[in-house]
């Protein structure tokens, strides 16, 4: 490690990862943004799902100032964040076969929609089945994952496959297996995870691409504004009224 203090080392590592995804994932970011723009244009709905800490990036694109109003959270009780007690239950539920089917059967997802599935490892049953079953419904799937896990770990799904194997588009976060950027001789384990920083940036890049693509086509992007700026509530009310049939977080 360099002489820079751990805080600086972590920020440098995060910047390096962001540069990598900017340069190496430019094509897939463009493709994902275009797919989302296509979905909006064609009357489809948008959903995002992530389990555990992967849910943070999903939540960051839902009901977000500066974001697309049409992005909805596909929530699975017990796995969205660490608010469930004990927190370890969420990790256990990710490995339960059949849970994704039950969630999709009771969700508003339908043919022509687009679902963003975020899973750092992409190896557990829940994200793999979510992608498999969503595509069987005619839903387009964008996966956000670390492709490295598919070569350095074993799948926990009966098929032996990973999330990346069941997506229309895969965004690779480039995160190393273990999600820890720093090591020190005085610290017994690697530390300082960067997956949330990188995954959120990837998704915001996709959303920016989608908004710009819609505008290029002569379609006003259904964007939300901050409620803390003058006129923000009125703006959002207009957008939500126009697209109310595709917004589910108000119901």
From TrEMBL:
User: Which CDD domains does this UniProt record tie to the protein?
Assistant: SIS_RpiR (cd05013)
Q: PROSITE patterns per the record?
A: SIS
* InterPro entries (alphabetical): RpiR-like_SIS, SIS_dom, SIS_dom_sf, SIS_GmhA/DiaA_subfam, UPF0309
- Indicate the segments forming the SIS domain, all copies: 36-221
Q: Which family does it belong to?
A: Belongs to the UPF0309 family.
Q: Which NCBIfam families match?
A: PRK02947.1
Sorted alphabetically, which HAMAP family does this protein's record hold? UPF0309
Name of the featured protein: UPF0309 protein GCM10022384_23880
